[in-house]
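As promised in the previous annual report, we have extended the structural survey to additional targets. Below is the entry for Cytochrome c oxidase assembly protein COX20, mitochondrial.
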Amino acid sequence: FFFLQSFKLLGFLDVKSVPCARESVLYGSLGSLVVGLGHFLATSRVRRSCDFAVGGFICTMLGYWFYCRYNLAQHRIRQRMLKEGMRNKILFEGSSLDPERKQTGNERGDS
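The corresponding structure token record, generated without further manual editing, is:
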């Protein structure tokens, strides 16, 4: 199958290995079709509709690229925080630094 193989867009962007690249190209082509066809149906001008289709592709692709990359960065930040929290939980569990452990007066140093 062709769509399972890796290919380079514009000679340098490997669509299979770069996160969000495949989805951006697919949504960009769909946006190109919608904008170009919509403009053609409204005006019946072929050349101008092709120009709008290219513009629709670029805008949709870049818009989804930034949206997807932002969500990916947020996801990685949440993963890193969760990993750090899990490591701290394992490290401090059962010790006097465990926030879930109820402290008594003797452990706090109150005599």
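The mean pLDDT is 82. Residues 46-92 form the longest helix (47 residues). These points will be discussed at the next consortium meeting with the crystallography subgroup.
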